[in-house]
Automatic annotation (TrEMBL):
This is dITP/XTP pyrophosphatase. It comes from Balnearium lithotrophicum. The active site is at D69. Its cofactor is Mg(2+). Substrate binds at T7, K8, N9, R10, G11, K12, S70, F152, G153, Y154, D155, K175, H180, R181.
Length: 198
């Protein structure tokens, strides 16, 4: 089975490819199929953004499309950056700029860490069919001293519960076992299997 993934994020793409390989699903990146500009993420929830991204591409290329919207919710920041994680330091911000902003916001509050969680919502949009969605989360804490070279985004600042290493210090295989995205992907695969039984 092959499925198109609508993302411009290389880190996400690699994690989807690696995880879905376990289930013999091949992931084709959207930019191999179309050079459409990504839609604006205007939703107020992860779920809405994932749905809108998947629908946007699926309707235009007439194939089933998976999209994901994810982010980091930090307790000390009342759940921010949340759906704004990718643009925390402004539109088009790099991971490094977003990480700096997070460190600054925590330091402004006099904190060196805070409980936090990563959230992932995935939507599989099927033209003229039913859609499927799943979600996952991983709890942990964020710190103000980045560590590690792996992963992407806020991973150098995120320590999963029960670990001493940051997400960026874990091999991708291990991150995929415990991460918000890994869990959401597993749930989606189970839903696909259910539908295929009909
Ligand atoms: O496992 C993760 N490890 C580190 N950081 C993460 C992770 N998962 C989400 N994040 C952060 C990165 C980005 O700042 C935002 C996602 O934003 P989100 O809009 O879903 O993705 P994106 O704009 O990078 O790519 P796209 O929309 O094309 O899929 O949350
Ligand atoms: Mg995005």
């Amino acid at each position: 089975m092959k499925v198109v993934l609508a993302t411009k994020n290389r880190g996400k793409l690699k994690e989807f490819q690696e995880k879905l390989k376990e289930f013999e699903i091949e992931v084709i990146p959207i930019d191999q199929i179309s050079n459409l500009e990504p839609p604006e993420e205007k939703g107020i929830t992860f779920c809405e953004n994932a749905y809108e991204k998947a629908k946007y591409y699926s309707e235009r290329i007439d194939l089933p499309v998976i999209a994901e919207d994810s982010g980091l919710e930090v307790e000390a920041l009342n759940g921010r950056p949340g759906i704004f994680s990718a643009r925390f330091a402004g539109e088009g911000a790099t991971d490094e700029e977003n990480n700096k902003r997070l460190i600054l916001e925590l330091k402004k509050l006099g904190l060196e860490n805070s409980p936090a969680r990563y959230v992932s919502f995935i939507f599989l949009y099927i033209p003229e069919g039913m859609g499927l969605w799943s979600s996952g989360e991983v709890k942990g804490k964020v710190i103000t001293e980045p560590r590690g070279e792996g992963g992407f985004g806020y991973d150098p600042l995120f320590i999963p519960e029960g670990y001493t290493k940051t997400m960026a210090e874990l091999p991708m295989e291990e991150k995929n076992k415990i991460s918000h995205r890994g869990k959401a992907i597993e749930k989606l695969v189970n839903l696909i299997k259910e539908v295929k039984k009909w």
